[in-house]
Write a structure and sequence with these properties.
elongated
């Protein structure tokens, strides 16, 4: 799962490598020692095989150079006032752990392998400051090495990760897509273990949710305009014009989807809250409609499968998946000319999972799912007289009146971006009063009648009409009595 380095970071590192550093002057000034300089020159601007041979021949010396030890401070600490030296050493340190695989595990033999580096993350509040950027790149590489080297457990990593996540989260909140991509790629490098993903999720307000905001932008929907994601009317072309080209490039989209996919391997932990707090199923369903490449489609399907499969999530998330019309979309996807075998396998598994669920659901179950998820649309039950004749009393009485209470919550919201929800809720109230008039007092105690009467003055014509119809049913039975 190796990713190409972000262009901005790669360019920055190349520029720093090409800069001349007055090393002898740094020695005379006491910024670095003679031994530091000898070790630096032995591995700087040499062939990779020579660099590897030099470091492997004296790993303790290079561990001491970067981290400090009995013989003195880390070169990063002793050169604290020389930004040019710090930048150069951060680039060199990254090159060393990339070119000498055994050096990374050796650094974790130090009692505090992160001590010289973590303070550099707060070197500046400027997101373009090279020192924190280069530090985060080094730390992401180093921690990634520790995670893949199972013989070298590093408990210090659990303390360092939250600080690194915090710095990277500030980059994801930037308006610069280059900085966002640096952060997201480093997230991806870090999320290789269960513990790393749990810590990432623990800080989700800062780590995960800015990534979801990027995906919402790609889908052409803001946080408060979810109604666009229920319509299903967008096309791949409109997504390209309004979403992906509207500030989210395909590369950044892919990397964000990759990071959320990695997180989704903790599906039991994250699934319910991702839906409750971010409405992830509606968002991913919309992104599936718009996905311009098989590689993005594959990540979307695999993430959905990881979230919907765990047993603790099924009773909560599967009803919502059907409400946002994911099964119908999967059927449409099968009509595309898809070739990726992993994608096709996940598509088949997801289709089977949802088919098994929907085949066991009654029309009342589907209606209840819609109400409980606050996902009202003009699905067949809302205007089906037979449905209301058979189910009105069940809706009012079952589970201690759970559904009418939820309907009341829906009516109490303004729904500025989706007035249709209010119109449908008023329609349902009209049917409940019509088919179960003896239960009117139950609805009145919940405040439904008063709210419906308020909506008769709503600016939306559909809401006014449906609320008038509901009030009319109340009045009809009042007159008859």
């Amino acid at each position: 799962m190796s990713l190409d380095p972000p262009t901005y970071l790669n360019s920055l590192q190349n520029n720093i490598r090409a800069r001349p550093i007055p090393w002898e002057g740094a020695v005379r000034a006491g910024t670095i020692t003679d031994n530091d300089l000898k070790r630096i020159k032995a591995v700087d601007k040499v062939r990779k095989d020579q660099r590897r041979q030099t470091v492997e021949g004296d790993k303790d010396a290079y561990k001491s150079l970067l981290l400090g030890g009995d013989q003195g401070k880390s070169v990063l600490e002793s050169a604290a006032k020389r930004a040019d030296v710090i930048q150069y050493m951060l680039v060199l340190a990254s090159d060393l752990i990339n070119d000498v695989p055994s050096l990374g595990p050796a650094l974790f033999e130090h009692p505090n392998p992160f001590k010289p580096f973590l303070p550099l993350l707060s070197h500046s509040t400027n997101p373009e400051d090279p020192i924190p950027l280069l530090t985060s790149s080094f730390l992401a590489n180093l921690i990634s090495v520790a995670q893949t080297d199972s013989s070298k457990p590093a408990p210090q990593t659990d303390e360092a990760l939250p600080k690194l996540y915090n710095y990277l989260s500030n980059l994801t909140k930037s308006q610069d897509s280059g900085l966002q991509d640096i952060a997201v790629q480093e997230y991806s490098a870090l999320l290789r273990t269960k513990k790393a993903r749990e810590l990432f999720w623990k800080q989700r307000q800062d780590t995960v949710y800015p990534l979801i905001d990027i995906l919402r932008t790609a889908a052409g929907a803001g946080r408060d305009s979810d109604s666009t994601m229920w319509s299903g009317g967008a096309s791949i072309r409109s997504a390209t014009e309004a979403g992906l080209n509207g500030g989210v490039g395909l590369q950044l989209l892919y990397h964000v989807l990759l990071t959320i996919w990695q997180l989704s391997f903790q599906g039991s932990l994250v699934g319910k809250d991702l839906e409750k707090e971010q409405e992830i199923l509606a968002l991913y369903t919309q992104l599936l409609r718009l996905s311009p490449k098989e590689k993005t489609t594959r990540l979307l399907l695999s993430t959905l499968l990881n979230l919907l499969t765990p047993s603790p999530n099924r009773s909560t998330l599967l009803p919502i998946a059907t409400t946002v019309r994911l099964p119908a979309l999967l059927t449409n996807l099968k009509g595309r000319h898809l070739t990726d075998p992993d994608l096709l396998e996940d598509l088949s598994s997801l289709t089977s999972l949802l088919s098994e669920y929907t085949s066991s659901q009654t029309t009342l179950d589907e209606y209840a799912s819609e109400i409980l998820a606050s996902r009202l649309r003009w699905s067949p039950p809302h205007r089906d007289a037979q449905f209301w004749r058979e189910n009105a009393r069940k809706i009012l009485d079952d589970n201690q009146g759970e559904l009418p209470k939820k309907l009341t919550e829906i009516l109490d919201k303004k729904w500025e971006d989706d007035k249709q929800v209010l119109a449908i809720a008023c329609n349902d109230v009209a049917w409940l009063v019509k088919e179960a008039p003896e239960k009117r007092s139950q609805l009145e105690k919940l405040g439904v009648k008063a709210r419906v009467m308020e909506l008769m003055a709503d600016e939306n014509e559909g809401v006014r009409w449906e609320s008038l119809r509901a009030v009319g049913e109340w009045l009809r039975y009042s007159f008859e009595e």
